[in-house]
Each structure stands twice: as C-alpha cells, then as structure tokens.
Amino acid sequence: MQVILITDIANLGHKDDIIDVKPGYGRNYLIPQGYAILATESAKKVHAENMRQRAHKEAKMKEAAAELAQKLEGVKLTIATKTSSTGKIFGSVNSIMVAESLKGQGFDIDRKKILVKQDAIKEVGTYNAIIKLHREVKVEIALEVVSE
User: Of 135, 137, 139, which Cα lies nearest the Cα of 16?
Assistant: First the structure.
C-alpha cells in the first residue's frame, strides 16, 4: 500500500515522501492519525505539482541551513551542572540544556532538532551532539559537561 506522508515520522520517512507500508499500518494508524494520505493517482498528480512549486523554496531553506551549519561548525558548548564528588551528574544533560546553551551564544535552535548521541549524559566529560537543521544538513557540535 502506498501512502503520501503529511508529516515527518521517525524511522519511516519525511514529509511528502511516497512510501510503501503494510496495509494495516496505513489504514489503521497513519491515515486516521492524519500522518498520511492514500496515494491514489489523483493524489500523486497533486503531490507532483506541489513538489514542483515547493522546490524553489526548499532550495532557499537548504541554503540557509547550510549557512547556519557553517556558523555552528566551530562552536563548543560548556554546560555546567550540579555534580557529586565522584563526577556523577544529579539528573542528566539533555537537548533542552543544549538548546538553552546555544541560545546563550546567539543561536535560536529548537530542542527537537538536537540529538544528543548518548541517551543520557550522566557524567562530567566531553560529548557530541548532532543538530539536524534540514533533512540533508546536519552539524555535529562538541559539548563539555563540567561541575558547577
């Protein structure tokens, strides 16, 4: 069964992708939740026309994301947290803290676009985070977690 995605879905596809899914998954989850529409011939024609019109806007967005990626290339964040005497963090460092630290340096990036490579940073040290600025533009930044 082919569907056209209306929103980005992790591990499945991006918005406006035409993908094959199992009929039950498409009919019982994706379509009723509003995440996809059925890919009929008429829907594919409308989708193709929309994609042609959107191509120019997409190129500008990608270019802006690439410029921001160049600015973020050399950024190194230092996040100070409360720790125990052994270096364990009370709680963990997450994407919200990274977004606030970036905002302090003048970069306004949504926390949902930030992926901390480790599931939970719970110790003092140096880590990496990936920022997805665009579907094709990603930048990796260094995080240094220190004790307050």
Answer: 135
pTM of the predicted structure, to 2 decimals: 0.65
Exposed/middle/buried for residue 77 (C-beta within 10 Å: 0-12, 13-18, 19+): buried
Q: Which two tokens stand for residue 70?
A: 């160049």
Domains in the chain, CATH or no CATH each: 2-63 (3.40.5.10), 69-147 (3.10.430.100)
SS percent in the chain: helix, strand, coil, step 5: 35, 35, 30
What would the pLDDT profile of 22-69 be if each residue is shown by its tens digit? 999 999 999 999 999 999 999 999 999 988 888 888 889 999 999 999
- Characterize 1-38 residue by residue with b for buried, 16 or more Cβ atoms within 10 angstroms of its Cβ, and e for exposed: bebbbeeebeeebeeeeebebeeeebeeebbeeebbbe
Summarised one tens digit per residue, pLDDT across range 83-113 is 888 888 888 888 898 999 999 988 889 888 9
Give CA torsion, residues 77, 78, 83, 88, to 10 deg.
Answer: 50
CB 148 within 8 A of CB 83: yes
The pair of three-digit structure tokens given for residue 40, joined into one six-digit string: 């009929």
